What we know:
Chain A is built from 2 helices and 5 strands, in the order ββαββαβ. Chain A is of the alpha+beta class. Chain A has a domain at 34-87: 2-Layer Sandwich (Alpha-Beta Plaits). In chain A, strands 2-5 form a two-stranded antiparallel sheet. A two-stranded antiparallel sheet of chain A has the order 3-4.
Amino acid sequence: xxxxxxxxxxxxxxSESSAVNKTGVWRVIKPIVDQEECNQCYICWKFxxxxxxxxxxxxxxxxxxDHCKGCGICEAVCPKKCIEMVKEE
Amino acid sequence: xxxxxxxxxxxxxxxAKLARAEVVAAYPITPQTTVVEKLADLVASGxxxxxxxxxxxxxxxxxxxxxxxxxxxxxYTATAAHGLALMHEMLIWAAGSRLPIVMGNINRAxxxxxxxxxxxxxxxxxxxxxxxxxxxxxxxxVLDTVIQAYKVAENHDVLIPAMVMEDAFYLSHTFEPVDVPxxxxxxxxxxxxxxxxxxxxxNPVGLCALVPPxxxxxxxxxxxxxxxxxxxxxxxVDEEWEKxxxxxxxxLVERYRMEDADAAIxxxxxxxxxARVAIDNMRDKGKKVGLxxxxxxxxxxxxxxxxxxxxxxxxxxxxxxxxxxxxxAFYTETAGALYQAPERPHVKNYVIGxxxxxxxxxxxxxxxxxxLTKEDGGEVEWFGLRTSxxxxxx
Amino acid sequence: MxxxxxxxxxxxxxxxxxxxxxxxxxxxxxxxxxxxKRTMITIPACCIAIMSGIYPRNFLKVPLLDVAFExxxxxxxxxxxxxxxxxxxxxxxxxxxxxxxTADIGIQALSGTxxxxxxIIYVMYDNEAYMNTGIQRSGAxxxxxxxxxxxxxxxxxxxxxxKKNMVEIMVAHDIPYAATASVAYPEDFxxxxxxxxxxxxxxxxxxFSPCPTGWRYSPEMTxxxxxxxxxxxxxxxYEVENGVYRVTxxxxxxxxxxxYLKLQGRFKHLDDETIKIIQKNVDRNWEMLLAKAEFTxxxxx
Lengths: 89, 394, 301
């Protein structure tokens, strides 16, 4: 929503996390983690350029589909081959 | 009152010191060099508590000042001519970032032809960058204006940077008596810099965002408004200065013998002092002439100019620079302001003193004679231009 | 549950608008993991400058100053001076520029900062061309590469000069620390940053940051390309501490450069002869690096 001149601050501050950008909509292929096979080495977490792989309380890998762009790096670096890129529906 | 004797350049440096500038980033260029040398001495001796970044260019000087100011430090630099031109991009950046940096600019001609002498082409070329521009006529005014400029620039209704100009050599290297106010009094006048926003790890924000067309216009309007609002603040700060230190520099426009004047000249910088002598001489002969000195060119004092237009029948505008294409900037802006005025006197432009050409009182008297008679010789005259038909006068 | 090999804290936000498989954003992510949140960053015009998207979004959780293209280092110097003036001495100041902003238009300001020895960390994330403006050649574009301003055409007008060696240029400034790193080896990068961050003076990192969009490869291959750059020694891993060279990671067996080149569309026009020239140059540079490490060893403190 465009704001009026009166409602804008004196300079354009970057004050809101880019996480509001739902970059997941860019995705054409999506990573699916086989949690049975995953040995939680976190190499996929380490190499995700979109900060879209999280580690949950149990230590499992969690893909943030709101932000994952589907680049496929996680599948490429997974030593266990337990991440598969599948076509978005 | 005990007086020091100092050059305009020393006055710049002492102004920055008294203002407690915390970061200085500067690069040497004639005729500004003695400003940075003096600052280096003041910092080295511990008299001035500041970080002095000896940058490798004026472009970096302004970049460093911008970053320092964005981090909440009071920043100062000084330059001249080509140094100012090299900064051009960063001048726009400083104003767009709304950072109250103060900079001394020693007005010097632009090359080629190569020249180190007084001329306003350098700062006039930067009139659209969003900086306030003060043109000084004495070392005292330089020192006072550096301090005043911080107070104006840091006002939260303003928050735009300011240039404090002085003429190359005529002021930069000429010794004059200067009253250096006590630090304590300056501290009372100028509180520490307290920006609304700064880089801070405890409150992290990003500065200089990418703004698409739906908001860019609004942010630019805010700069325009800040420049408009600065008029009042400049006036108030000069009045407050006068109350505290006993001298005013005229706010935006300083008037001299304008009472009952038939004709006036508009001028800036050191030629104004010469003009006073010329005007006194003319007044002695019964000729009713006066001076309106442009102390501030940005924001342009259009209301003050319109007031003068009400009082006189003829105005001569003296420009120590020329805008290739049409007229000197002081003239075109004066004429532009007068178009909307109810009274429009005769106005003519005299381009004079280019590249440091001397301006003796008799030249200004000659111009005043022409202004009085509304002599019709076209809109713009290069006064004193040597032509094959001209008489060698000097 | 495995052990994390780099710090877990994320100081870069998701939702940034980098291309799929962007190497440059990884460089930023790792750097901030190494430095922590008491860090201030200047970013010039480059891909990373637009990562936040439009106002008022921010892709970082640390103070960020977007600056003019050629002013990254001078701006970092300005921040440091302001912090010094305020007596704040527990904040890292970083200049984070691309290869064009560093090796080309920003090299003068960087040289000034390094010569003065200003206490900042400079990171050049190298994607080997002006990627933000659309893949124009920079001083860091390698020999043989296609870009939109070295378009090959029918006359073979690909880039004919090697990339500028920024680490060497920085070493010549007598700074305490300069190093290469790669987004394919985050542990190595983080370790180097941790080692250098508290050294007094200017610290320089040249970070290899593969770019799928500009290098013409499929986005999932970013790490693989980085690994091959290391294994072929196209981009070797080393550090220079007070003039002393040390190769921080050596490939067990060097692979032929063709393995690296053939995966990227930007090199697809290269014939065998040209690849031989590239191989020869890579061999020579690698040998020279080893020799420098050997020669300077005796100057280690």
